[in-house]
Structures are given as structure tokens and as C-alpha cells.
Amino acid sequence: MLTLVLLLLLKGLCLCIRGAFGASATYNVGGDKGWVVGLVNYTEWAANHTFYTGDSLVFLYEAEVHTVLEVGKSGYEDCSSANAIASYEDGKTSVVLRQAGTHYFICGVAQHCPAGQKLQVVALDAPAPPPNSGPPAFMTAGGLQPSTNLGTSLPSLPLPLSSLLTLGPISYYILLL
């Protein structure tokens, strides 16, 4: 249970950091297996990730054997390449999710899409960076007070150091951030 809580805290921390810096992420579609037929459940793979506008999907595949087609919803459902939005055959295709919404990809090689080589991802609007609110404030025994001399004072921790160490090194690290 503690492990699950720590993992959720870390994921939340990563999302906060990502939002603070406006960073985009790069995802290798299918993980280590890449863009292949029959070895990856792309629905499950996509469900384990949160995508935002600005993120990149990298499709790694054998160019002689596979393709990547960006299609509409009907092309995805019918495994049809007839009205493809974009077509790639280079073996290392990087697609930036420029718009929020659902994006659909299939392999255009016969029988690959019906065998599961297709991907649907939902891109959310990228989190807005926080407004610039001036110099940082530090927590002291008297409450939240702005610091005027950042070079000589350190923030007070809300818990004694010994209490943090009993929570484990990850909790200590998170609280120091």
C-alpha cells in the first residue's frame, strides 16, 4: 500500500514538474517491442500513458515490413487507408501531437491492422505553466513569509529530519522539493 501511495506521489510530482517547465514528452510506441504486429496490445499500451499536446510518438519499425498511417476514426475502425491524413514508411517515424483530441494510427500493410497493429491516443491540452509570482517564499514557524535575503536563510522543514527519515528516502526527497 505504501508503495502504491509513493508511486502516485511520484507521478503527481512528475506532472507538476512537467507543467512548471512546459516540457513535452517522447513516447516509443509499443515500448521496447516497437511498432509490430501481434506482439503488443496498443490499446493497453496507450491506457498506461497520459498524452498532452506537444508530446511526440515515435514509431520504430522495419520499413520493409510496416508503415504508419494517421487516419480518421472511420479509417481506424475499418482498418482503411483510403483517406489517410499522413503516411510514413521510414522505419523511425516521429509524430508530434499538435492538437488536443483523439489521434488514430494504423499499419497500412494488408492484415496488420485487423491483427491489432493500430493505435488510438487522446492528447489533452498541455498544462499551462504557473504564473511568475516573484521571489520564492519560505515556511517559518510564524507562517508563510517572503525572504528578503536568500543567501543567509534556509527554509524551515515542517517536520523534524528524524521524522522524514522514518518515512523513507523517497518521501524525504519529495518533501525537500
Automatic annotation (TrEMBL):
<feature type="signal peptide">
    <location>
        <begin position="1"/>
        <end position="16"/>
    </location>
</feature>
<protein>
    <recommendedName>
        <fullName>Phytocyanin domain-containing protein</fullName>
    </recommendedName>
</protein>
<dbReference type="GO" id="GO:0005886">
    <property type="term" value="C:plasma membrane"/>
</dbReference>
<dbReference type="GO" id="GO:0009055">
    <property type="term" value="F:electron transfer activity"/>
</dbReference>
<dbReference type="Pfam" id="PF02298">
    <property type="entry name" value="Cu_bind_like"/>
</dbReference>
<dbReference type="InterPro" id="IPR039391">
    <property type="entry name" value="Phytocyanin-like"/>
</dbReference>
<keyword id="KW-0479">Metal-binding</keyword>
<dbReference type="InterPro" id="IPR008972">
    <property type="entry name" value="Cupredoxin"/>
</dbReference>
<dbReference type="GO" id="GO:0046872">
    <property type="term" value="F:metal ion binding"/>
</dbReference>
<keyword id="KW-0325">Glycoprotein</keyword>
<keyword id="KW-0732">Signal</keyword>
<dbReference type="InterPro" id="IPR003245">
    <property type="entry name" value="Phytocyanin_dom"/>
</dbReference>
<feature type="domain" description="Phytocyanin">
    <location>
        <begin position="25"/>
        <end position="125"/>
    </location>
</feature>
